[in-house]
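Customer escalation, tier 2.

The customer says the design service returned an amino acid string that "doesn't look like it belongs to this structure." They asked us to rerun it and document both sides in this ticket. The original structure tokens are below, unchanged.
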């Protein structure tokens, strides 16, 4: 199982955003497999533009995979999104992992981007269907563009597509349009149930069952004065809307050996890539190193 680090929640000692290039260098040197970013226009907290952040990470590394967790594909005009994705594939030498979700929160960013929030699911599905041809450089008649056609160049390899979300609709989308499923903050029971649904839906679609990943919220440095497990559960319950019992079962925390034990449980459920999103406000360097130590113990 590969272990990746979520960049978006990492901060410097003075509360600034962790430099993505420095984070990527350290993650690669520490033995982590990937660096992932969230994707928002306006999120109520400082956040860097996701494609540019991954480009900075790709430029200073050679092995580290880079990923969207997850790209709100429908929030952008499709040709521009395809151009960004193809460029990242080219710059990284094919290391991009394309996580895609329909988003929806906060609603204001959809209005700001001029995209009707009620159309996001349909726009996402249309984009996923058209994206392989766009990256291949084939002429494509664009959905929602009144017959406009575009032919992108240079061509780029299609990245692996991870479909975010844990709803029935997200599982159907993963089975029919994705290569893998990437839910966030789910329990082991949800993973087991989701894999069963994926097998059923992919069989209906005549496709192989997708792979499975997971994005987990974690407190890695509570034993060093960082956010406690209880505080992270409170955050997930009060700010993110998860039922408290669910948050208790889904979040990860503890010393590296305890984190390794929790991550190993995901591997036993067939998870091939886990993205760990650290919370706690401790220095990003410490978060990176603690996760790397946990990875080494799995």
């Amino acid at each position: 199982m590969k272990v990746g680090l979520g960049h978006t929640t990492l901060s410097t000692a003075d509360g600034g955003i962790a430099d993505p290039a420095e984070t990527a260098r350290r993650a690669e040197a520490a033995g982590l497999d990937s660096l992932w970013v969230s994707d928002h226009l306006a999120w109520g907290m400082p956040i860097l533009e996701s494609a540019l952040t991954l480009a900075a990470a790709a430029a200073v590394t050679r092995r580290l995979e880079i990923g969207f967790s997850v790209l709100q594909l429908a929030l952008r005009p499709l040709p521009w999104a395809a151009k960004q994705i193809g460029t990242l594939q080219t710059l990284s030498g094919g290391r991009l992992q394309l996580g895609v979700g329909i988003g929806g929160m906060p609603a204001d960013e959809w209005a700001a981007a001029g995209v009707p929030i009620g159309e996001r699911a349909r726009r996402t599905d249309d984009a996923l269907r058209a994206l392989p041809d766009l990256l291949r450089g084939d002429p494509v008649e664009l959905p929602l563009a009144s017959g406009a056609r575009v032919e992108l160049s240079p061509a780029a390899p299609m990245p692996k597509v991870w479909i975010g979300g844990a709803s029935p609709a997200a599982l159907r989308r993963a089975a029919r349009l994705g290569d893998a499923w990437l839910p966030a903050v789910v329990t082991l029971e949800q993973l087991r149930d989701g894999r069963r649904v994926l097998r059923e839906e992919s069989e209906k679609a005549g496709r192989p069952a997708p792979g499975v990943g997971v994005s987990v919220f974690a407190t890695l440095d509570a034993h060093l004065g960082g956010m406690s497990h209880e505080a992270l559960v409170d955050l997930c319950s009060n700010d993110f809307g998860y039922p408290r019992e669910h948050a208790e079962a889904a979040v990860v925390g503890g010393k590296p050996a305890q984190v390794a034990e929790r991550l190993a449980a995901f591997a036993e459920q067939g998870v091939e890539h886990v993205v760990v999103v650290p919370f706690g406000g401790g220095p990003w360097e410490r978060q990176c190193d603690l996760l790397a130590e946990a990875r080494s113990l799995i």
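Tier 2 assessment: The sequence is consistent with the input. The mean pLDDT is 95. The longest helix spans residues 188-205. Sent an explanation to the customer and offered a walkthrough call.
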